[in-house]
Amino acid sequence: MPIYRYRCSRCGTEFRELRGVQDRALVRCPGCGASEVTRLLPRFGVVYKGSGFYTTDYRRARSGGASSDGATDGE
């Protein structure tokens, strides 16, 4: 069963509660007993590993601004 985070709309208390996915019972604030609570988004961290996450991993630097086909301007 997942643990959900809630915030009370009346007193602002943040709390966590273990609830089943199919659980339909109202969640009440442990501080004031109000049923006006909002479920908060879960906090999680993102770790990027491997290549391809930075622009330097897939973008090649241009050399001098000349075109690569060997053509020159007006000659």
TrEMBL record:
<dbReference type="InterPro" id="IPR013429">
    <property type="entry name" value="Regulatory_FmdB_Zinc_ribbon"/>
</dbReference>
<feature type="domain" description="Putative regulatory protein FmdB zinc ribbon">
    <location>
        <begin position="1"/>
        <end position="42"/>
    </location>
</feature>
<dbReference type="InterPro" id="IPR029040">
    <property type="entry name" value="RPABC4/Spt4"/>
</dbReference>
<protein>
    <submittedName>
        <fullName>Putative regulatory protein, FmdB family</fullName>
    </submittedName>
</protein>
<dbReference type="Pfam" id="PF09723">
    <property type="entry name" value="Zn_ribbon_8"/>
</dbReference>
